Amino acid sequence: MAGSERHYRINREILAPRMRLVDAKGGQLGIVSLEEALRLAEEANIDLVEVAPEASPPVCRLMDFGKFRYTQQKHEQAARRRVHKVVVKELKFHLKIAPNDYQVKRRMAERFLQKGDKVKLLVTFRGREADHAARGERLLENMVKDLAEMSAVEHRDNTEEKYRSITLTPRPKGKVQ
Fold first, then answer.
1. Do domains 9-82 and 88-170 have the same CATH topology?
2. What CATH code is assigned to 88-170?
3. How far apart are CA 165 and CA 123, in angstroms?
4. Boundaries of every domain in the chain
5. Residue 100 DSSP symbol
């Protein structure tokens, strides 16, 4: 299933002649031979699983391996659900943006930052607007100032002639600078 899944040796796959044995309830049974451990597992109708092969002697446990693997998969699935994938949302402006449109873009950026996504603010220049790049940078700086409570500047791109951009990353909740 997943690449991080660990391979456990069970029953006859175990190579160690002697091992530290733990019963199904977590109690120590001491150091026993492989044959003795396999006999105990067969009597209890459960599996012998090598849980710590690097230990000296290796640690093996008596358990229902199918049930163990099922619970491990459920834990991994729950952990994957909790992870938020960071997405970069892009908001484009022009130099001649109306004040109302500016406020709409600001609110959209706030919403994206609150969700935990990064925001790339992009001012594009059409035609001779590129001669007024300083106005575009001022527009971006005003937006950065408006969003300063909830974000920090991650990257500035002023290398292209046709646009200027700033990437904002959300601040952890409660951290204001």
1. no
2. 3.30.110.10
3. 6
4. 9-82, 88-170
5. H
The structure's pTM equals: 0.54
What type of residue is 59? Answer: V
CATH architecture classification, 9-82: Roll (3.10)
What pLDDT was estimated at residue 145?
93
Q: What is the pLDDT of residues 21-58, one digit of tens each?
A: 988 888 888 898 988 888 988 888 998 998 888 888 89
What average pLDDT does the structure give for the chain? 86
How crowded is residue 100: how many other Cβ atoms within 10 Å of its Cβ?
Answer: 8
How confident is the model at residue 121, as a pLDDT? Answer: 92
Q: How far is the C-alpha of 120 from the C-alpha of 104, rounded, in Å?
A: 15
Residue of higher predicted confidence among 133 and 47: 47
CA distances (Å), 75 to each of 25, 49, 67, 71, 131, in order?
20, 19, 13, 6, 57
The SS3 of residue 111 is helix
Hunting for tokens 């990353």 — which residue is that?
A: 169
